[in-house]
Design a protein that fits this description.
With 313 residues, this protein is α/β, with parallel strands linked by helices. It has three domains: 10-130, Alpha-Beta Complex (Conserved hypothetical protein from pyrococcus furiosus pfu- 392566-001, ParB domain); 193-251, no CATH class; 255-313, no CATH class. The protein is 50% helix and 12% strand. It has helices spanning 17-21, 28-35, 73-86, 107-115, 130-144, 149-163, 167-174, 178-186, 192-199, 205-211, 217-227, 231-244, 255-274, 298-309, and strands at 52-56, 60-61, 92-97, 100-105, 120-125, 277-282, 289-294. It has a five-stranded mixed beta sheet. A two-stranded antiparallel sheet has the order 6-7. A hairpin with a 6-residue loop joins strand 6 (277-282) and strand 7. Helix 7 (167-174) packs across helix 8 and helix 10 packs parallel to helix 12 (231-244).
């Protein structure tokens, strides 16, 4: 399909949430009906116009293209215990697929419901394409901060490879900076062993980015994990390794350049967490300075406010 033939769908901002992506599904009406003791609607795709429906767990199956593939056993057990006491409060999102329903968003809740031995779960049924399904699943997981860096990077690559998205288009979809998307995708250049350490949480994204500068990243990653090195220490380890290999001149480090490097490292760390460009102006005396967050839309500002305050705006 050529660029001109692509269907033009409005890209929704991360701060708008899934309601915007799903056409403002009316949950209030269904919630009030459940709260009032009314019967849940039947589990059919045609009843999706009613909002939330009840579907047999056996009729639901996960999406093999789901960006999130790693689920904490402890977290699942805690959620299952909560579901036994209170039931499923937030519906999952599914689409008709293969004679049943495929999960678009909410696989963790579905898994926990199985453990809680629930027979049915509340769900929103929508007709969605493969592309829309992946986009929504990616955004939902990013909103919840459920993806590890490798899962997020792989989802970006799949959207690029399977649906022809550019990095700029991906940035618009998830309301991140283009550089954030590019930096995430670069993590896939790391050896499998290093990527697995990131998935397991033994290495942070900052560690992984530092190791990208080495041809011996697998060995250095093992050293980082064994010695519990910080990101700054990892960067220094990579620099020493390159000097020893004769691939870089030994840098002359002064107090001023070390301080600048610290500031740049903090800027990069905050930028990675928020997906925004961050600038720190440090005056160098008395510890004073200013932090600037650059956003391109009100949706990004909304997301930033939520991250900083933990509240819904």
């Amino acid at each position: 399909m050529s660029e001109g033939d692509k269907p033009q769908r409005k890209k929704m901002g991360l701060g708008r949430g899934l309601d915007a992506l799903l056409g403002e599904v009316s949950l209030d009406r269904s919630a009030s009906r459940v709260a009032g003791g009314g019967e849940a609607p039947s589990s059919t795709a045609s009843s999706s116009s009613e909002g939330v429906v009840s579907i047999a767990i056996a009729d639901i199956h996960p999406n093999p293209a789901q960006p999130r593939r790693h689920f904490s056993e402890e977290s699942l057990q805690e959620l299952a215990a909560s579901l036994k006491r209170h039931g499923l409060i937030q519906p999952i999102l599914v689409r008709p697929h293969g004679g049943g329903y495929q999960i678009v968003a909410g696989e963790r809740r579905w898994r926990a419901a199985q453990r809680a031995q629930l027979h049915q779960v509340k769900a929103i049924v929508r007709e969605l394409s493969d592309e829309e399904t992946l986009e929504i699943a990616l955004i939902e997981n990013i909103q919840r901060q459920d993806l590890n860096p490798i899962e997020e990077a792989e989802a970006y690559r799949k959207l690029c490879d399977d649906f022809g998205h550019s990095q700029s288009e991906l940035a618009a979809i998830v309301e991140k900076s283009r550089s954030h998307v590019a930096n995430m995708m670069r993590l896939l250049e790391l050896p499998l062993l290093v990527r697995e350490l990131v998935i397991e949480g033994k290495l942070s994204m900052g560690h992984a980015r530092a190791l990208l500068g080495s041809d011996d990243s697998a060995r250095l990653a093992a050293v980082v994990v064994k010695q519990g090195l910080s990101v700054r220490q990892t960067e220094a380890l990579v620099r020493r390794s390159r000097v020893e290999e004769g691939k870089a001149p030994k840098p002359r480090v002064t107090e001023a350049t070390a301080s600048d490097a610290d500031i740049r490292a903090v800027e990069q760390h905050l930028g990675d967490l928020l997906g925004l460009r961050v600038k720190i102006a440090h005056k160098g005396t008395g510890g004073a300075g200013a932090v600037t967050f650059e956003y391109r839309s009100l949706d990004q500002l909304d997301m930033l406010c939520q991250r900083l305050t933990g509240e819904q705006f």
